[in-house]
Amino acid sequence: MKVAAVKSPGGLDRIVIEDRPKPTAKAGEILVRVRASSLNFHDFAVVAGMIRTPDGRIPMSDGAGTVEAVGEGVTRFKVGDEVLSTFFPNWDGGGPQLPRLLGVPGDQADGFAAEYVAMPATAFTRMPRGWSFKEAATLPCAALTAWRALIVEARIKPGDIVLTQGTGGVSIFALQLAKAAGCTVVSTSSSAEKLARLKDLGADHLINYKEEDKWGEAAMKLTGGRGVNAVVEIGGAGTMAQSIAACGIGGHISLIGVLAGISGEVPTALAFSKNVCIQGITVGSRQSQEEMIAAIEANGIKPVIDSTFPLEGISAAFAHQMSQKHFGKICLEF
Question: Does domain 2-138+303-333 have CATH number 3.40.50.150?
């Protein structure tokens, strides 16, 4: 089978396409013909060498494909089923615990930049009905992160106000999920063009953070002084102060990314005076993924896909990701 592999010490010029033996499904496993994957920042961290992996690691945490064989004892799936990977294959349900957060594909184990994978059946869910493989492959990391942030942890409800940052996969899914839940959405971005596209997706209020440094205060004004109920925080230290400023009393900040810095000053007095909850979010469980799939089917949500590359174009796909010119998800299809 054909795979993409990362040669140590990593870098986009260190991703090679090579042939490896096709795996077989052992007891409890399924053999999946992978048809698509999608890029996340976590995947870039692996291929760039920011996350150290063994030489020759097959990257990509997300994958969708068709079951070609089932191992002994497997009853969850049958040959021909269309399946979707889980980011944490050992996290069935409940809250995060260290054993549940181990074994991430493309990082701690070989991932989905391969034509075939053999993995435990419990590491997969069904795909949404009527979705293509590349559409489904956008869900396991980005969409489930947004789902856990807003639905599981922030527990948004109709009438709440949600703030999203930027136009990456998590942020766009957060916008779509918030609107489906009956919320008002405040979205930030760096360009008028991207803000216009966010408006087309349903954003109620728009802020260009390049023109408005204190966008947290701007969000407070846009909400009539009420503030937002939930923030999907993908910037980290560089944006946390403004996220706290945007929150109303009892606001919830889901800390997902560190794109604007891994450390920095936080206005703790303002955070505690507002009774703000700041919670780290690392994707979610298989149970949450199954519940999310049911919800997006019921609401007719579809992913926003920026572009699609073949497996041989994986380095170009990551280069496009790092240009930050994309809007939505970047996919691999093979």
Answer: no
